[in-house]
Design goal:
- By secondary structure, the chain is mainly β.
- It is 8% helix and 45% strand.
- It has one helix and nine strands; from the N terminus they run E-E-E-E-H-E-E-E-E-E.
- The protein is globular.
Length: 141
């Protein structure tokens, strides 16, 4: 998983995604767009599971293994709390910190390929004593 090891209990961590108060939206960046996901200062990574594309963000987890175990246990039954859409022309996607600049990376980032198409970002979360995870499923329309 990208973004380093999981912080334990509510210790936070560096943000892995551009954060903007007030919901999910997009922002012009160069000739493209940035999908902006609001929320707490979280660790984040891209996770491909089965045929699904997920962005996993967490405030705390005992380990990456326990984080993924929790994700696998809960993801199918969590209600969608927020949905947003975006168009992707196909190719590289960068999961980056809000303070960074593409091409002039100041902090570690994750990149992954995403097929061309219109996507919905379906957001859910789960919180236990051991794990707090925010799940963004990238679902192709």
């Amino acid at each position: 998983m990208g973004g380093g090891c999981c912080p334990s209990k509510r210790s936070g961590g560096r943000g892995g995604l551009p954060l903007q108060p007030g919901g999910t939206g997009d922002l012009p960046v160069g000739r493209g767009q940035a999908l902006v996901l609001s929320g707490d200062n979280t660790q984040a990574t891209y996770y491909r599971w089965g045929r699904g594309h997920f962005l996993l963000r967490w405030l705390y987890a005992e380990s990456e293994t326990k984080l993924l175990d929790h994700f696998h246990d809960v993801q199918a039954r969590l209600p969608v709390e927020e949905a947003a859409g975006f168009w992707h022309p196909g190719g590289m996607v960068y999961l980056m910190d809000s303070t960074d600049l593409p091409g002039r990376w100041l902090v570690e980032h994750t990149d992954f390929q995403l097929p061309r198409g219109r996507y919905r970002v379906l957001t859910s979360h789960s919180e236990t004593e051991e794990t707090y995870i925010i799940i963004h499923r990238l679902q192709r329309d």
